[in-house]
Amino acid sequence: MQAHLRAPGDGASARFVTQARLVRIRGQNVLFSASQHAIFALNDTAADIWRLLEEGMPAEAVARGIARDRISTRDAHGQVKAALGDWQRLGLIRPHISPHDVAAQGHVSQMLSVAGRRMRILYPKAHALPTMTIFSHLEVGEGDTDVVFQLAAHAGRLHLFRNGEWIVASAPNEMATVLKGEVLSDVLRAATYELALHAAALLKNGRLVLLCGEPGAGKTTLTLALVHAGFGFASDDVALLNADGRCVGLPFAPAVKSGAWPLLADYFPDLDTTPTFRRPDNRRVRYLAPNASAAVTTESWPVGSVILLHRDRAAHPGLDPIDPVDVLRGLVGGAFAPSGELGDTGFDVLARVIASVRAYRLSYSGLDDAVGLVERACQ
Known about the structure:
9-stranded mixed sheet; about 30% helix; alpha+beta; 3 domains; Phosphoenolpyruvate Carboxykinase, domain 3; 5-stranded mixed sheet; 23 strands
């Protein structure tokens, strides 16, 4: 459904697409977003605004339509404007942006390759930097394109399209994180693999070291410290396990949360000058794109070792062997199978990998100790 709107007070017309369904259940107005699996309760005024928008009424007319003896026209305009802003932020409505509007903004093109998937990203000129820098190590020359992502600026927000279809909108300083997630999702949908492992992957002596751990275990921080120590970078977060038991890393730039910035300052002195982005949860992050020479972007590699991380300020540094059950739990936790569940074939591949690797639990508090222990384990 589309509604032709004029934002109250700014004189700019815009068409909006509603992306939820309003129903009334036992006297309660309920807005259901199928894409978000979310339900919102609306008061009667908000429900009236929503219905009038669905009917295609301009915002000024919507404001007049909800005006009552107890609501002035000015207050009605304010409520409509607030509702439009809230619903856009929640992804319940979005402006309709035509291809002509997008083309008129001009763009900067970037071609990437991730796990053999070739994708083009088109940025508005005013918003190309610094977002495109976090993908610079994945750039390739021109050629056939599997998918096109395009960004369009509108009313202070960036809208992301995939092959012409709208996906999501965000604030400009959130788009790097959003775009990275959508590119990852595209690769996971298109690639051929048995299991996507939630693990960092680093290359040493022709074999991958997989780092697994619960949130807060320091996977990203340790990954970057190991890259600084000379390990090849294959992935910060996801590695694809193929039917032959080899892995392909997805080497997206690691997102370093603000709490880890002081820990990495000695390893990456320029970190404090790196642009700061925000995640949709409002946490600040900085992306450290590896040098192209350190990134392993296309090859598959055998797995040499799996290390489960246990970071504790009071922990005594140690690297202790663990049994196959613990390895299996560490790798299956957070893993994703293309079919939605780990089937017999995928489990058999994973079991063969576990039988052939060295597996440890790394206990540590300081990065230098952890790097030294991992280096010795990989000799």
